[in-house]
Amino acid sequence: MARTTVRIALGALGLLAGLGTPLAAQTLWLPASDPVGIGRGGAGVAFGQSLEAAALNPALLVTLRDDASAYLAAGMELQSSQATLQSNSTVLHSTDRNRFLPALGAAWKLKPNLYLGVKFDNPFMRHALMPSTYTGRFEAQGMDLTTRRMEVQLSYAVTPGLSFGASLGMTHVKYLFTNTVRVPVPGVPGNPVSDLNPAQGILEVNAEERGSKSLPSYAAGFRWAINPRWTLAGAYQGSIQGTLPLTARVDPSHRQLVGISGFGTPNAIAVPAAQTLQDALTVRPGDGGITLPGRFTLGVRQRMTQTFTWEADLRYVLGASTKLPAYAAVTGPGGAVEGRAGFRDDFHSGFGISLAGEFTFTKNVTGRIGLSSDPGLRKDASLEPVLGGSRTAAFSAGLGWKVLKGEVNLGWQIRQSQDREAKNLDITWGLGGPGTTGTLTRVEGMGHLWSVGYKKAF
After folding, report:
1. How many CB atoms are located within 10 Å of the residue 100 CB?
2. 73: pLDDT confidence band, cut at 50, 70 and 90?
3. 128 CB-contact burial (10 Å; exposed 0-12 / middle 13-18 / buried 19+)
4. Which of 13, 273, 292, 424 has its CA 20 to 30 A from that of 243?
5. Residue 333: strand, helix, or coil
6. Is 0.70 topped by the overall pTM?
7. Residue 12 Cα distances to 19, 37, 354, 369, angstroms
8. How far is Cα 250 from Cα 137, in angstroms, rounded to an integer?
């Protein structure tokens, strides 16, 4: 029976892999921050008796068997993007790829049917920096979005099989964005371009804006144990929204002079004039409004045998509500200039799915496997490698080992982005302003998550 169960589970996982492969991509949100959640591929809203699963659904806290328990985990998150210009097959890769990935959780029994918990994780993360030769730099060249969330959780069991939970806290949001703009260089740099003061070249600089703020966050969930083998549960993670206090500047690390056509060499007089112009440029940050999407997840878990348990989660991501800060504006003698288009309001919502299996190999060793497919966040016409946003597929694996009077867990996930071709990324910028050639750019991406943690009951 056990062998049949394992074959069925592996077959289901393989089916999801086959369905997920053509949907591949790298998302703005993370499936989990701890090794157990990563190993399960983000599935777990119905996975009772698991402190790590309570990070996804606070209603699971009352299923814990220990009076008190805690875990601490640390790992790395890696993202890499690639842009290939189809006209000449030039391939450019992003840098700024790695981020530290901490996580912790704890729970205490207040009463037999009432538990208190706390969690610290990283719900959203996106970072990339494209080279200065990347043709789409006028739209976006670099981004660093990092979120650290701390919430207090409370879980109450109405009956042994029915419980509810909620969590409330703060999420620290850090945002950095860079794009490139071009400013005409007149012969007399203190005056605007005119027939009497024609442009001698074009100055290219990077506009950078950054800000951080702690914003409120919350979650709620339920759990219904239909019988000892089947559990149905759901959780809602609220959106994170507010206004970041942004500052802006001209990044001094990038400066380029080109001719008035947008290519070639400028007139000699433009060289000293450009330096005077750059020193006189002022920068105004854009609107700092930000909204990171909420999501609702419904999961079902079955304990098929004493050695194997599986769970399937269906989630709906409220991506249409996503909002990122507006572009910084660089002002010179001729007025203000911004990036080519900014992140358009083309975000959309969609469904995703995760499937996880957990195997008890021995009394002390547990294996985990997961597969997931996430919806796209952006419409294909506006995809680019910095923010990304196409659909997602991922494969996860994990291992738990009871040792050192506790449990050591390891989780790993690989994410592969859907390859898409966009017409908006081969951008030119002459005296008439920015425009596109219509040449296709192939956008690709991939990423890894790994984490190792230690859990102990008290």
Report:
1. 10
2. very high
3. buried
4. 424
5. coil
6. yes
7. 11, 19, 11, 12
8. 15
